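Dear colleague,

Following up on Tuesday's group meeting, I ran the structure prediction for the two-component complex that the binding team flagged. I've pasted the input sequences exactly as they went in, so you can double-check that nothing got truncated or mislabelled along the way. The structure tokens for the whole assembly follow below. Feel free to forward this to whoever is handling the docking comparison.

Inputs:
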Amino acid sequence: MVVLFKTTDNKKMTNLNKIEKSALFMRKKILEISHNCGISAHLGGGLSMVEIMAVLYTHVLKIDNSNPHWPQRDRFILSKGHGVLGFYSALLVAKIIDEDEYSSFQTNESNLIAHPVMNLDLGIESSNGSLGQGLSMGIGIALGAKIKNKSFKTYILLGDGECDEGSVWEAVMLAPQLNLDNLVAIVDYNKLQSDGGKVIDLSDLASKFEGFGWDTYNVDGHNIERLLEAFEAEHVNNKPKMIVANTIKGKGVSFMENDNAWHHNLLTKNKYEAALEELKENYGN
Amino acid sequence: MEINSKNARLWSRLGSRAVFGQAMLAAGERNEKIMALSGDLGNSSGLARFQQTFPERYLNVGIAEQNMIGVASGLAKEGFNVFVTSFAPFITLRAGEQIRMNLGYMKLNVKAVSIGSGVSMSFLGNSHYGIEDAAIMRAIPNITVVCPADCVEIVKVVHAASEFDGPMYIRLTGAVNNPCVYAEDYDFVIGKSITLKEGKDITIFAHGTMVFESLEAAKILEDQNISATVINMHTLKPLDYNAIDKALSTSKAIVTVEEHSVIGGLGSAISEYTSQFSNNPAQLTLGLPDKFGKTAEYGYLLDKYRLVSNKIAIDIVEFINERAKS
């Protein structure tokens, strides 16, 4: 078993353990549903965001799983809409959706398809799938909260690929000017997009956001402790926070890691069993 | 805002955008959920006083229409009714997919307003004209599309939109010295057309600036013994099918007149509906041609494209005569 963190603080240790277990559970459920649905799914980008989502849905987000409509809930928007495997598995771990709902993934007329469809009963705030739009909506939500003196926070998860979209940078320019210290954006920087790596070389993404005035963190996106620190840090100078999470596409399954064939692929029975075996070796039961 | 003949004349002189701004100010005073966003065209949209009066409910997002639609949509999710403004192509085409996702797919409570649609931007050219904006907005599910006839109707539309929970596209045609259709208050209901003149021979459906021109054309037609019904089809979607049904059963010809391309606008919308029936009256579709033409003064262009009352009347007479021969 890989030791992901070392700490002496008991409470923190308990939190980290809990998040780590959630992440492992999510990975298993991602593989299971990808195999069971019998058609291709966005595995690579779903697996790269698992720790980010486990930290959010196990620890950071203030949500009430018995009332997804709770007005004071923190908002989460999956701007990288194809990352649903990492999203639905987080909704499952947070008990916002149940196993039956989860099992309907990519079946006819399911609520859970390859991109989020707005459905607050299931904890899904917005419809996505067209890239480069989530951050703009997040700014609007965060601004609305400011105007109405509401204390919830808004979290937006972007992919690095979607940062090719000009609309992302329109939003990146605006948010710091509005002093939205209730807005947190995360980029799942797995450095591979649909057609591969360096299609547009984003290189030092954190410096770019910093240059636009964001309170920026550049962390290992699979290190739960580092992610937690970034999420829990106070916003500097009332600025919105940007967490560049450096990740590995396909993380957790060696034959998927950094292999873009797994951007969108079918998980056959043999591959599924091999992947599960690897998870067991790497993370234990 | 009191609607009377004096104000109607005053608003007509001020023009579409200034009156839109005044109507927004009134809406903002009446309803604290009203917000206004602009893509650096706040002044051009008549929103300067709204901005001064409600600084916390106004935002210039910069020249970034795509982001503007997204930010408006986030605000709409938090309970605001958000009006966003820009020129027709920038809002419907540049940010068209954002409108599709947020207003269409998610049905968020955003009112996309295009200022200076049609060819009213005159020498600013085709880059700024709204030729195909209604066609695009009309094709997206869930979006209500409205095009007010004159400045009084702009006031009525903004009032209605400020109380309407759902996405809308509001298309402002005309400029300063906008022709007056209305001089007194009347009932305005989104989706319900208004019969301005009854006639027994033909029915003319129009929206935006062409409502006035159609009324004037109908007067000219009277002199030639053609009696025309004129209908203000201010809502292009949802269409008022009852009004079309009535025209189908009572008129010898249907004419549509619009300051929009002949492709995809009101003419298309009506023929999409009527084509399911047999033995329909013939339809004449008048509008802007399917081309990027030369740039000129607004009035010159309307005349060139035969969207002025006397030429509309001539074309209708010719159409009726041709049909009579065949």
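Residues 10-283 of chain A form a domain with the Rossmann fold fold (CATH 3.40.50.970).

Cheers,
M.
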